[in-house]
Write a structure and sequence with these properties.
alpha/beta
Length: 417
């Protein structure tokens, strides 16, 4: 099996990968260590992720470190030129930008049929598919890594139900990932994508941010910085209180949508924006997704209830709801920053992919990890951050001997002068 892509001749246009690599010092440093220590040599690794230049850098780095790498991506998240560049470099790639859901599934199964020992996943869709359709492959796997909040959630559910049969490192939960990628990276890229696709300024707009986790926090911050009036909706009391302390109005979604210019879902949960919410929006309001799961905006249910698409222009469609309200939907409710843009800034993704590489290394050097969801060890997380800090020209301080003694003591008299 050699892969399935749209057009092999596009490979020269995919050379933006080299630009990305030049701006990814953390990924490069950790990949060099994997190569020098032989950690991934001969290991079959399946990369299931958004396929754009930054992601391609990780796939190539793993291959150059000695791994046998296969790549897949959903059509809506695929850059055909990048797919061609990876195929030209000798990697089997199963991804086409025009692929529909059935072909996406077939492509993921094709990757699994390469019998990967490790899966590097984004959204946990390939990990779950392997458990459901290829249990014989899962039985031989060393483990997997998962880099999204919406992917870690179902994996923890699988673990609770006794269905997760391999160790999975929750790369998403590492501080070097979630504090930067989720908040700063996705926050910026989602807001910029909304402004670009909708072709409007956020200044003076009322933007409803649904969910105030780290992604929602970043989206709210960037919207406010661009002059929007931000309203947050939350189901978690502590998160809602955090939003209030940050200066945002906090209201129930059913109330907030009635005066929204823009609604951005950041929950990663299906039907977050339901039919009743869409029907209650002001005429011409915009809805978008930064959370990353299908039907986060309940578009299928809206159509079943009588909503009709009346126009489409590039990545924006207009639905007429049964009430007569026209709602502008950005990129069919897909995760906008990757389906209609090029994802998070390269410096941010360098951190995330550094965490992914550290997670792969942790899996392979810790053979006794039990099936379940595991955190990346703190030391590995800290190392990723330290390399990144150095690339920005920063340097860590070192605690003194007296400070270390104080931290090691429990008797209050030990710290007295």
């Amino acid at each position: 099996m050699t892969g399935r892509i749209a057009d092999a001749s596009l490979w020269r246009a995919g050379l933006r990968i080299e630009w990305a690599r030049a701006h990814m010092p953390v990924t490069s440093a950790l990949a060099a260590r994997l190569a020098s220590e032989g950690t991934v040599a001969g290991i079959r690794i399946g990369v299931s992720d958004v396929l754009e230049p930054k992601t391609a850098t990780v796939a190539l780095a793993l291959a150059e470190a000695g791994a046998e790498v296969t790549v897949t991506s959903a059509g809506r998240n695929t850059d055909d030129a990048v797919a061609a560049a990876l195929a030209h470099a000798g990697l089997p790639v199963y991804a086409r930008a025009d692929a529909e859901r059935a072909e996406d599934r077939a492509n993921a199964l094709a990757l699994i049929d390469h019998r990967p020992q490790v899966i590097v996943d984004d959204g946990a869709s390939t990990i779950r598919l392997a458990h459901l359709e290829r249990p014989d492959v899962v039985a031989e796997m060393r483990g997997a890594t998962e880099q999204t909040t919406s992917g870690v959630r179902p994996l923890r559910r699988m673990q609770a139900d006794g269905a997760l049969r391999i160790p999975v490192v929750a790369a998403n939960d590492a501080r070097s990932k979630s504090l930067f990628d989720n908040m700063h990276g996705t926050g910026q890229s989602v807001v910029f994508a909304v402004a670009d696709v909708a072709d409007r300024s956020l200044r003076g707009a009322t933007v409803v941010v649904v969910g105030y986790g780290r992604v929602g926090t970043g989206i709210a911050q960037h919207c406010a910085a661009l002059g929007a009036r931000v309203v947050v909706t939350e189901t978690d009391a502590v998160a809602a209180l955090q939003a209030a302390f940050a200066g945002y109005e906090v209201r129930p979604l059913a109330e907030a949508v009635r005066r929204a210019d823009i609604v951005i879902s950041a929950t990663g949960i299906r039907h977050t924006i339901d039919v009743a919410h869409l029907d209650a929006l002001p005429d011409g309001a915009i809805v978008a997704v930064g959370g990353g799961v299908g039907q986060e905006i309940a578009l299928d249910a809206a159509r079943a209830a009588g909503a009709v698409e009346i126009s489409r222009d590039a990545a924006m469609s207009v639905l007429r709801m049964p009430s007569g309200t026209r709602v502008r939907v950005l990129d069919d409710g897909n995760c906008l920053n990757v389906s209609a843009a090029e994802g998070n800034p390269v410096e941010i993704m360098d951190l995330s992919f550094g965490v992914q590489l550290a997670s792969v290394a942790h899996l392979l050097v810790t053979p006794d990890l039990a099936p379940g969801v595991h955190e990346l060890p703190r030391a590995a997380d800290d190392e990723v951050a330290a390399i990144a800090l150095g690339s920005f020209g920063g340097a860590l301080d070192v605690p003194s001997a007296a400070q270390m003694a104080f931290l090691a003591a429990w008797n209050p008299e030990d710290g007295d002068e």
